[in-house]
Fold:
Amino acid sequence: MTATADLNPYNADVIECPYPMYERMREQGVYYLESADTWIVTRWEDVQFVLKRSDLFSNLPQVDPHSIPAEQARLARETGALPGSDPPEHTHYRRLAGPWLSKRGIESFEPNVYRVIDGLIDRFIDDGEVELASQFSTPLTVLVFVELMGILDEDIPQVTSWVNDTIEAMGAGFGLVERERLAELMASGAEFRRYLLDLAEERRENPRDDMLTDLVTGPMKGFGGRTLHEQELQGMLVTLLMGGTETTLNMVDSGMWLLLEHPETLAQLRHDHSLIPNFVEEALRIESPVQQLGRHAIVDTEIGGVAVPAGARISIFYAAANRDPEHWDDPEAFDIRREEAKRHLGFGAGVHYCIGAPLARMEGRIAFERLLTRLDNIRYSPGKNDFRHGPNHVLRGFRELWLEFDKT
Structure:
Protein backbone atom coordinates (compact mmCIF):
# COMPACT_ATOMS: atom_id res chain seq x y z
CA MET A 1 0.00 0.00 0.00
CA THR A 2 1.49 3.35 -1.09
CA ALA A 3 0.64 6.46 0.89
CA THR A 4 -0.32 9.81 -0.50
CA ALA A 5 2.47 12.38 -0.46
CA ASP A 6 0.96 14.29 2.45
CA LEU A 7 1.46 11.32 4.80
CA ASN A 8 5.17 12.06 5.05
CA PRO A 9 6.46 12.34 8.64
CA TYR A 10 9.88 13.48 7.38
CA ASN A 11 8.77 16.96 6.36
CA ALA A 12 10.64 19.56 8.41
CA ASP A 13 7.41 21.19 9.58
CA VAL A 14 6.34 17.96 11.33
CA ILE A 15 9.18 18.06 13.87
CA GLU A 16 7.62 20.53 16.29
CA CYS A 17 4.33 18.66 16.69
CA PRO A 18 4.38 15.26 15.01
CA TYR A 19 1.43 13.76 16.86
CA PRO A 20 -1.41 14.80 14.50
CA MET A 21 0.63 13.28 11.67
CA TYR A 22 1.16 10.10 13.69
CA GLU A 23 -2.59 9.82 14.21
CA ARG A 24 -3.19 9.96 10.47
CA MET A 25 -0.39 7.45 9.88
CA ARG A 26 -1.95 5.00 12.35
CA GLU A 27 -5.27 5.33 10.56
CA GLN A 28 -3.54 4.46 7.30
CA GLY A 29 -1.95 1.32 8.77
CA VAL A 30 1.24 -0.09 7.27
CA TYR A 31 2.13 1.74 4.05
CA TYR A 32 4.99 2.40 1.66
CA LEU A 33 6.32 5.97 1.53
CA GLU A 34 7.86 6.27 -1.90
CA SER A 35 9.65 9.57 -1.30
CA ALA A 36 11.68 7.99 1.54
CA ASP A 37 11.76 4.45 0.11
CA THR A 38 10.54 3.00 3.39
CA TRP A 39 7.57 1.15 4.85
CA ILE A 40 5.92 3.02 7.72
CA VAL A 41 4.81 1.09 10.83
CA THR A 42 2.99 3.01 13.57
CA ARG A 43 0.36 0.90 15.33
CA TRP A 44 1.24 -0.67 18.68
CA GLU A 45 0.55 -4.24 17.60
CA ASP A 46 2.49 -3.88 14.34
CA VAL A 47 5.47 -2.17 15.99
CA GLN A 48 5.64 -4.92 18.60
CA PHE A 49 5.54 -7.54 15.86
CA VAL A 50 8.52 -6.02 14.03
CA LEU A 51 10.54 -5.49 17.21
CA LYS A 52 10.04 -9.02 18.49
CA ARG A 53 10.69 -10.91 15.25
CA SER A 54 14.42 -10.69 14.72
CA ASP A 55 14.09 -13.76 12.51
CA LEU A 56 12.11 -11.66 10.00
CA PHE A 57 13.58 -8.19 10.43
CA SER A 58 17.25 -7.21 10.59
CA ASN A 59 19.09 -4.34 12.24
CA LEU A 60 22.16 -4.74 10.05
CA PRO A 61 23.05 -2.22 7.37
CA GLN A 62 21.35 -3.38 4.19
CA VAL A 63 23.98 -5.67 2.69
CA ASP A 64 23.02 -8.74 0.72
CA PRO A 65 25.36 -11.44 2.15
CA HIS A 66 24.90 -13.51 -1.00
CA SER A 67 26.32 -10.81 -3.25
CA ILE A 68 29.63 -10.29 -1.46
CA PRO A 69 32.52 -12.59 -0.48
CA ALA A 70 32.11 -14.57 2.74
CA GLU A 71 34.77 -12.55 4.59
CA GLN A 72 33.05 -9.27 3.71
CA ALA A 73 29.73 -10.73 4.83
CA ARG A 74 31.26 -11.72 8.17
CA LEU A 75 32.70 -8.24 8.74
CA ALA A 76 29.38 -6.68 7.75
CA ARG A 77 27.78 -8.58 10.62
CA GLU A 78 30.48 -7.71 13.15
CA THR A 79 29.45 -4.09 13.65
CA GLY A 80 29.84 -3.89 17.43
CA ALA A 81 26.89 -1.47 17.42
CA LEU A 82 24.05 -2.89 19.51
CA PRO A 83 21.30 -1.20 17.45
CA GLY A 84 23.09 -2.18 14.22
CA SER A 85 23.70 -5.88 14.73
CA ASP A 86 21.71 -9.11 14.72
CA PRO A 87 21.90 -12.27 16.79
CA PRO A 88 24.15 -14.12 17.38
CA GLU A 89 26.70 -11.25 17.25
CA HIS A 90 24.32 -8.87 19.03
CA THR A 91 23.83 -11.42 21.82
CA HIS A 92 27.57 -11.67 22.49
CA TYR A 93 28.05 -7.88 22.42
CA ARG A 94 25.21 -7.47 24.88
CA ARG A 95 26.64 -10.05 27.25
CA LEU A 96 29.94 -8.18 27.26
CA ALA A 97 28.43 -4.83 28.31
CA GLY A 98 25.40 -6.14 30.17
CA PRO A 99 26.83 -6.77 33.66
CA TRP A 100 27.81 -3.10 34.03
CA LEU A 101 24.39 -1.79 32.96
CA SER A 102 22.04 -4.31 34.54
CA LYS A 103 19.79 -3.25 37.38
CA ARG A 104 22.05 -5.10 39.82
CA GLY A 105 25.18 -3.74 38.17
CA ILE A 106 24.24 -0.08 38.64
CA GLU A 107 23.00 -0.34 42.23
CA SER A 108 26.44 0.39 43.64
CA PHE A 109 26.77 3.28 41.15
CA GLU A 110 23.77 5.19 42.56
CA PRO A 111 25.84 7.35 44.99
CA ASN A 112 27.95 8.50 42.01
CA VAL A 113 24.80 9.62 40.17
CA TYR A 114 23.64 11.61 43.21
CA ARG A 115 27.07 13.23 43.43
CA VAL A 116 27.11 14.16 39.73
CA ILE A 117 23.59 15.61 39.85
CA ASP A 118 24.13 17.63 43.01
CA GLY A 119 27.43 18.87 41.65
CA LEU A 120 25.70 20.19 38.52
CA ILE A 121 22.97 21.89 40.54
CA ASP A 122 25.65 23.49 42.74
CA ARG A 123 27.06 25.21 39.65
CA PHE A 124 23.90 27.18 38.86
CA ILE A 125 21.74 27.25 41.98
CA ASP A 126 22.98 30.66 43.13
CA ASP A 127 22.17 32.18 39.71
CA GLY A 128 18.43 31.63 40.03
CA GLU A 129 18.37 30.62 36.37
CA VAL A 130 19.50 27.66 34.26
CA GLU A 131 19.47 26.57 30.65
CA LEU A 132 18.51 23.02 31.46
CA ALA A 133 19.75 21.27 28.31
CA SER A 134 23.30 22.59 28.26
CA GLN A 135 23.85 23.16 31.99
CA PHE A 136 22.20 20.07 33.38
CA SER A 137 20.73 17.36 31.14
CA THR A 138 23.58 16.94 28.66
CA PRO A 139 26.44 17.18 31.16
CA LEU A 140 24.56 14.82 33.49
CA THR A 141 24.47 12.04 30.91
CA VAL A 142 28.02 12.66 29.72
CA LEU A 143 29.44 12.81 33.26
CA VAL A 144 27.75 9.56 34.26
CA PHE A 145 29.14 7.87 31.17
CA VAL A 146 32.56 9.36 31.92
CA GLU A 147 32.39 7.82 35.40
CA LEU A 148 31.55 4.40 33.99
CA MET A 149 34.22 4.51 31.32
CA GLY A 150 36.92 6.18 33.40
CA ILE A 151 37.35 9.09 30.97
CA LEU A 152 39.54 11.95 32.24
CA ASP A 153 37.77 15.04 33.55
CA GLU A 154 39.83 17.24 31.24
CA ASP A 155 38.30 15.50 28.22
CA ILE A 156 34.68 16.10 29.26
CA PRO A 157 34.12 19.38 27.31
CA GLN A 158 35.40 17.83 24.09
CA VAL A 159 33.42 14.61 24.59
CA THR A 160 30.28 16.69 25.20
CA SER A 161 30.88 18.59 21.96
CA TRP A 162 31.33 15.34 20.05
CA VAL A 163 28.08 13.96 21.49
CA ASN A 164 26.17 17.06 20.42
CA ASP A 165 27.65 16.85 16.92
CA THR A 166 26.74 13.17 16.63
CA ILE A 167 23.12 13.91 17.58
CA GLU A 168 22.96 16.76 15.07
CA ALA A 169 24.39 14.54 12.32
CA MET A 170 21.48 12.13 12.70
CA GLY A 171 19.30 14.68 10.91
CA ALA A 172 21.43 14.48 7.77
CA GLY A 173 19.53 11.53 6.35
CA PHE A 174 16.38 13.62 6.25
CA GLY A 175 17.91 16.65 4.53
CA LEU A 176 17.95 18.71 7.74
CA VAL A 177 21.67 19.54 7.75
CA GLU A 178 23.36 21.91 5.30
CA ARG A 179 26.16 20.42 3.20
CA GLU A 180 28.93 22.57 4.71
CA ARG A 181 27.78 21.79 8.23
CA LEU A 182 27.53 18.10 7.40
CA ALA A 183 31.20 18.06 6.37
CA GLU A 184 32.09 19.56 9.75
CA LEU A 185 29.98 16.96 11.54
CA MET A 186 31.58 14.10 9.63
CA ALA A 187 35.04 15.37 10.58
CA SER A 188 33.92 15.67 14.19
CA GLY A 189 32.62 12.10 14.10
CA ALA A 190 35.93 10.81 12.77
CA GLU A 191 37.79 12.61 15.58
CA PHE A 192 35.38 11.16 18.13
CA ARG A 193 35.87 7.61 16.92
CA ARG A 194 39.65 8.03 16.87
CA TYR A 195 39.58 9.33 20.43
CA LEU A 196 37.56 6.34 21.62
CA LEU A 197 39.87 3.87 19.91
CA ASP A 198 42.95 5.57 21.37
CA LEU A 199 41.30 5.40 24.78
CA ALA A 200 40.62 1.70 24.28
CA GLU A 201 44.24 1.07 23.32
CA GLU A 202 45.39 2.85 26.48
CA ARG A 203 43.20 0.50 28.54
CA ARG A 204 44.79 -2.52 26.89
CA GLU A 205 48.17 -1.33 28.07
CA ASN A 206 46.98 -0.04 31.45
CA PRO A 207 43.87 -1.94 32.60
CA ARG A 208 41.64 -0.39 35.27
CA ASP A 209 38.51 -1.35 37.17
CA ASP A 210 36.09 0.26 34.74
CA MET A 211 33.66 -0.64 32.01
CA LEU A 212 36.00 0.35 29.19
CA THR A 213 38.69 -2.08 30.37
CA ASP A 214 36.16 -4.91 30.41
CA LEU A 215 34.98 -4.05 26.90
CA VAL A 216 38.53 -3.95 25.57
CA THR A 217 39.89 -7.04 27.31
CA GLY A 218 36.79 -9.18 27.87
CA PRO A 219 36.65 -12.46 25.93
CA MET A 220 33.50 -13.25 23.94
CA LYS A 221 32.56 -16.88 24.40
CA GLY A 222 30.55 -16.91 21.21
CA PHE A 223 33.60 -16.00 19.14
CA GLY A 224 36.02 -18.53 20.52
CA GLY A 225 37.04 -16.24 23.36
CA ARG A 226 38.46 -13.47 21.15
CA THR A 227 38.18 -9.79 22.10
CA LEU A 228 36.47 -7.06 20.10
CA HIS A 229 38.33 -5.97 16.97
CA GLU A 230 38.67 -2.28 16.02
CA GLN A 231 35.44 -1.99 14.02
CA GLU A 232 33.47 -3.63 16.83
CA LEU A 233 35.07 -1.49 19.52
CA GLN A 234 34.26 1.66 17.60
CA GLY A 235 30.66 0.59 17.09
CA MET A 236 30.23 -0.52 20.68
CA LEU A 237 31.67 2.61 22.27
CA VAL A 238 29.76 5.07 20.10
CA THR A 239 26.57 3.08 20.69
CA LEU A 240 26.98 3.04 24.46
CA LEU A 241 27.83 6.72 24.67
CA MET A 242 24.98 7.85 22.42
CA GLY A 243 22.50 5.40 23.92
CA GLY A 244 23.56 6.51 27.38
CA THR A 245 22.96 10.18 26.64
CA GLU A 246 20.20 10.84 24.13
CA THR A 247 17.28 9.14 25.88
CA THR A 248 18.04 10.53 29.33
CA LEU A 249 18.88 14.11 28.37
CA ASN A 250 15.79 14.48 26.19
CA MET A 251 13.60 12.83 28.79
CA VAL A 252 14.79 15.23 31.50
CA ASP A 253 14.16 18.31 29.34
CA SER A 254 10.79 17.10 28.06
CA GLY A 255 9.83 15.89 31.53
CA MET A 256 10.45 19.33 33.04
CA TRP A 257 8.43 20.94 30.24
CA LEU A 258 5.57 18.51 30.91
CA LEU A 259 5.61 19.41 34.61
CA LEU A 260 5.55 23.14 33.93
CA GLU A 261 2.67 22.63 31.49
CA HIS A 262 0.85 20.62 34.20
CA PRO A 263 1.45 22.51 37.46
CA GLU A 264 -0.95 20.29 39.40
CA THR A 265 1.24 17.31 38.54
CA LEU A 266 4.36 19.22 39.55
CA ALA A 267 2.73 19.90 42.93
CA GLN A 268 1.93 16.20 43.35
CA LEU A 269 5.54 15.22 42.70
CA ARG A 270 6.86 17.80 45.14
CA HIS A 271 4.56 16.40 47.78
CA ASP A 272 5.22 12.74 47.05
CA HIS A 273 8.55 11.69 45.53
CA SER A 274 7.37 8.08 45.34
CA LEU A 275 5.44 9.15 42.22
CA ILE A 276 8.64 10.13 40.40
CA PRO A 277 9.51 6.68 38.95
CA ASN A 278 6.11 6.34 37.27
CA PHE A 279 6.28 9.97 36.13
CA VAL A 280 9.55 9.11 34.37
CA GLU A 281 7.83 6.23 32.57
CA GLU A 282 4.87 8.38 31.52
CA ALA A 283 7.21 11.11 30.26
CA LEU A 284 9.05 8.51 28.18
CA ARG A 285 5.73 7.34 26.76
CA ILE A 286 4.08 10.61 25.86
CA GLU A 287 7.23 12.46 24.71
CA SER A 288 9.31 9.56 23.42
CA PRO A 289 12.98 10.68 23.22
CA VAL A 290 13.57 8.18 20.41
CA GLN A 291 10.72 8.71 17.98
CA GLN A 292 11.60 6.00 15.47
CA LEU A 293 14.26 3.58 14.30
CA GLY A 294 14.70 1.32 11.31
CA ARG A 295 14.84 -2.31 10.26
CA HIS A 296 14.78 -4.14 6.97
CA ALA A 297 12.90 -7.27 5.99
CA ILE A 298 15.01 -10.41 5.69
CA VAL A 299 12.33 -12.33 3.76
CA ASP A 300 9.00 -11.65 2.10
CA THR A 301 6.57 -11.18 4.97
CA GLU A 302 3.47 -9.36 6.16
CA ILE A 303 3.04 -6.60 8.72
CA GLY A 304 -0.50 -5.87 9.82
CA GLY A 305 -1.84 -7.84 6.88
CA VAL A 306 0.22 -5.83 4.36
CA ALA A 307 2.75 -7.67 2.17
CA VAL A 308 6.31 -6.36 2.59
CA PRO A 309 9.04 -7.65 0.26
CA ALA A 310 12.43 -8.99 1.31
CA GLY A 311 15.03 -6.23 1.51
CA ALA A 312 12.46 -3.51 2.20
CA ARG A 313 13.42 -0.68 4.54
CA ILE A 314 11.05 -0.33 7.48
CA SER A 315 10.57 2.69 9.75
CA ILE A 316 9.06 1.76 13.12
CA PHE A 317 7.57 4.70 15.00
CA TYR A 318 7.83 4.11 18.73
CA ALA A 319 6.28 7.49 19.47
CA ALA A 320 3.19 6.76 17.37
CA ALA A 321 2.71 3.35 19.00
CA ASN A 322 3.07 4.97 22.43
CA ARG A 323 -0.07 7.00 21.68
CA ASP A 324 -2.10 4.29 19.93
CA PRO A 325 -5.69 4.46 21.25
CA GLU A 326 -6.13 0.77 20.43
CA HIS A 327 -3.61 0.03 23.18
CA TRP A 328 -3.73 2.96 25.63
CA ASP A 329 -6.69 4.47 27.46
CA ASP A 330 -6.85 8.21 26.76
CA PRO A 331 -3.35 8.14 25.18
CA GLU A 332 -3.05 11.91 24.73
CA ALA A 333 -3.44 12.51 28.48
CA PHE A 334 -0.34 13.00 30.62
CA ASP A 335 -1.14 10.81 33.62
CA ILE A 336 1.68 10.04 36.08
CA ARG A 337 -0.56 7.49 37.84
CA ARG A 338 -1.09 5.47 34.66
CA GLU A 339 -0.73 1.87 35.85
CA GLU A 340 0.61 0.53 32.56
CA ALA A 341 3.00 3.43 31.86
CA LYS A 342 6.08 1.20 32.16
CA ARG A 343 4.91 -0.82 29.13
CA HIS A 344 5.87 2.05 26.80
CA LEU A 345 8.23 1.53 23.88
CA GLY A 346 10.62 4.31 24.83
CA PHE A 347 13.34 1.69 25.25
CA GLY A 348 12.20 -0.54 22.39
CA ALA A 349 11.28 -4.22 22.83
CA GLY A 350 12.52 -7.71 22.03
CA VAL A 351 16.18 -8.65 21.79
CA HIS A 352 17.11 -5.02 21.11
CA TYR A 353 15.47 -3.66 24.26
CA CYS A 354 17.73 -0.82 25.41
CA ILE A 355 20.60 -2.22 27.44
CA GLY A 356 20.94 1.10 29.28
CA ALA A 357 17.31 1.31 30.42
CA PRO A 358 18.06 0.65 34.13
CA LEU A 359 20.69 3.42 34.16
CA ALA A 360 18.43 5.86 32.29
CA ARG A 361 15.61 5.21 34.77
CA MET A 362 17.96 5.76 37.69
CA GLU A 363 19.28 9.03 36.23
CA GLY A 364 15.76 10.30 35.53
CA ARG A 365 14.49 9.40 38.98
CA ILE A 366 17.40 11.01 40.83
CA ALA A 367 17.47 14.07 38.54
CA PHE A 368 13.86 15.01 39.30
CA GLU A 369 14.16 14.04 42.95
CA ARG A 370 17.07 16.47 43.41
CA LEU A 371 15.74 19.23 41.12
CA LEU A 372 12.38 19.29 42.92
CA THR A 373 14.10 19.17 46.31
CA ARG A 374 16.62 21.95 45.71
CA LEU A 375 14.73 24.28 43.35
CA ASP A 376 11.45 25.95 44.28
CA ASN A 377 8.92 27.86 42.18
CA ILE A 378 10.43 26.59 38.89
CA ARG A 379 9.17 28.62 35.93
CA TYR A 380 10.07 29.55 32.36
CA SER A 381 12.54 32.42 31.96
CA PRO A 382 10.55 35.29 30.39
CA GLY A 383 11.31 35.88 26.72
CA LYS A 384 14.08 33.29 26.43
CA ASN A 385 12.30 30.16 25.16
CA ASP A 386 11.02 29.44 21.68
CA PHE A 387 10.27 25.81 22.71
CA ARG A 388 11.65 24.49 19.45
CA HIS A 389 13.03 20.99 19.11
CA GLY A 390 16.26 19.93 17.48
CA PRO A 391 16.19 19.30 13.69
CA ASN A 392 15.93 15.55 13.98
CA HIS A 393 13.12 13.10 13.18
CA VAL A 394 14.73 10.27 15.12
CA LEU A 395 15.43 12.01 18.44
CA ARG A 396 12.99 14.43 20.06
CA GLY A 397 14.38 17.01 22.44
CA PHE A 398 14.35 20.75 23.05
CA ARG A 399 17.23 22.77 21.66
CA GLU A 400 17.19 24.72 24.93
CA LEU A 401 14.94 25.23 27.94
CA TRP A 402 15.52 28.32 30.06
CA LEU A 403 14.18 28.22 33.63
CA GLU A 404 14.08 30.52 36.59
CA PHE A 405 13.64 29.26 40.15
CA ASP A 406 13.92 30.15 43.81
CA LYS A 407 16.54 28.48 45.96
CA THR A 408 14.96 26.31 48.66
